[in-house]
Here is the input.
Amino acid sequence: MKTINLQLLISGMALLAAFTGCKSSTEEPRVSVIPKPVNIEYSGKELEFDDGVKVVSSDTALDLAAKRLYDRMKELPQAEFLTESKKASVTVRLKLDERIGQAEGYQLKIGRDVTISGKDRAGVLHGIESLLQIIHQAPVTEDGFEIPRLTMTDYPRFGYRGMHLDVSRHFFPPEFIKKYIDLIAMHKMNTFHWHLTDDQGWRIEIKKYPKLTEVGAWRVDHENLPWGERPDRAEGDSAAYGGFYTQDQIREIVAYAAEREITVIPEIEMPGHSAAAIAAYPEYSCSGAQTTVPSGGHTGTNILCAGKDETFTFLEDVLTEVMALFPSKYIHIGGDEAWKKEWENCPLCQKRIQDKGLKDEHELQSYFIRRIDKFLTSKDRILIGWDEILEGGLAENATVMSWRGEAGGIKAAQMGHDVIMTPVDYCYFDYYQSEEKEMEPPAFNGYISLDKVYAYEPVPEELTAEESKHILGAQGNVWTEYMAAEAVVEYRVLPRMTALSEVLWSPKEGRDRNDFMKRLEPFLNQLTTRNYNFFIPAPQGAFKEMIFLDSTHVRLESPWPFATIRYTLDRTEPVVQSHAYEKPFPVGDQTVLKTALFLENGQHGPVKTVHYRKVLPIPPYETDPGELKPGLSYKYYEVSVSSVGAIKKFTPKRTGVTNRIGLPEGHRREVFAAEFIGYLKVPETAVYSFRLTSDDGSQFQLGESLVVDHDGPHGSSAAHGQIGLQKGYYPIYIGYFDGGGGNSLKLEVKRGNDGWQEIPAGYFFHKLKR
Ligand code: ACM
Ligand code: ZN
Here is the structure.
């Protein structure tokens, strides 16, 4: 094989490095593993593979792992040199070793042979994943391949490293659930949170209550769901949509996960999010009225009656069958978003409140969860609930899953309860991955970038060291309202899950975004080998419309440093052979650029089309600066509107002058509006870009031009616009409304190629009223 040449080359490079004062190549990491291992020591040489492998397990508990390692090696690009062979040149030994300190820890030694020693079976499996990553990235020749000799010492930072999947909003067959579990294992995560029931479908067979799946697993829905389309928006299709897992299928999946040392936590939602159960057994709702399984969006009746003892008998029966299927010590009972209107009007619920001396419906929910907690505790299981279970008093033995930010998790940890962090701003992998939503299949409004996930720290600063011990770890949540297809689920979770795996596994001190980026490409290649779909961003630095005054340059940036920006100027789609963008280049007066980000293997992200257009700057407003006073006029409204245009019809609650564009001071918590009116001083003739971030709608008008239109109800997101302006003063108008939920408002500006900044106070003016 070509080892000699390669080694000559490497020692040649080391020599060169010594002369030029560069870092010696042996100091650089020579393998790339995600999540980043705790420690790697290289021993200089390589181990060659050219004639098959022999895998030997020292313990029968590892026999299956050995068999799986052979199977996995068959998938690799190096497969022909990894065939099972008794007289192989390389032996891989799998061992259990009590002396390894940490649960799930392992040591991987690559020397003349390979040894993987695990504290436990999980440790050995994690070691196998590292070895497979190392082999996958080794260049292969016709004679074989080689990997660096090293000793890797590795163990996880957190004990709970999870991924969730909602199979109610869309049903996914058992084969896909197994593929998802494989993905969890590849990331050295250890928990699969299976969201089995919700309003839009009950997905687990319960023998004692057959209607849960005969009725509750099926809804009237759109039949043929294309990529990402939201089925509950479809009309006129009467096909039934749904599915469920038989108990046999569930046993098989739980066993499949256990073989990979992954715990499956089932979630049975209660008391809310239960419309599918209620459609099957209306007697457990407050009214008892017959309903149907809703196909999406907001539902009618979806809360179980807390006043009827039969409800609890039903739930205990269900949970008894669930516990027989799932050995997990944790059982998730939901508890989120229980809309309690029906409890307020139900005589039985009200009687329960009276009989038990409860204060209100929150305490009734707390009574509900406590009763289930007692039941689960009596069966030696631990209840997990979403953070709403804190309201009205937390059940004694409950573990809290904090999703509405981290406050619930902090409170629970301070009370001495265990916590799993899944805050919506970092861990919701159903959100978009980029600001350019039109380049992704439809999702929820907000976006959570890969960098943001990578920067997430699961232990809040507010906690003492003792309280921090209650943070068991974190989890990515995958709600599937907008994910009809398996490929979309993969696209949404990857590679954000890859970033989260490192947050949860690797030491906090070593976390380094640039280093992660270097290791990401080989990891993505492995995902491709295993047939997973993933998100690739679009090149940044240009909007879809780019205007300029005299001349301009195409300037592009790659969000992924390892990827290549390719482009065309002839309106054809970029391909692997297209020009690679290296540095800014000038454009003609009318240029159409098509660009995409390419990986080394030819895979690429969405194609972005950018129109460059030469314009004349619009003339400023003719005014005598003497008439202008500092600051903008603003009007604050306490009204409910769903478009900026509607604000004007109302009378403001307050008016005044302000130096900044943002949420008006003293605004009420939700449902309000504001307008900002005045003049903007433009310091010099140029093209200006504006970015308006708001929740909900907003508009930015300058003179006659609607520069940014971000109107309509939506979550926090940004919209952009560009305009050519001359030095001088321009009349401006910003309208904004909040329709409920969160709120935000920010206007930023960018001149030419400068960075974004908020407009400084000295640039706003208003005219005194005549
Ligand atoms: C949730 O997102 N409702 C837990
Ligand atoms: Zn009731």
Residues 3-20 form the longest helix (18 residues). The mean pLDDT is 92. The chain has 18 helices and 40 strands.
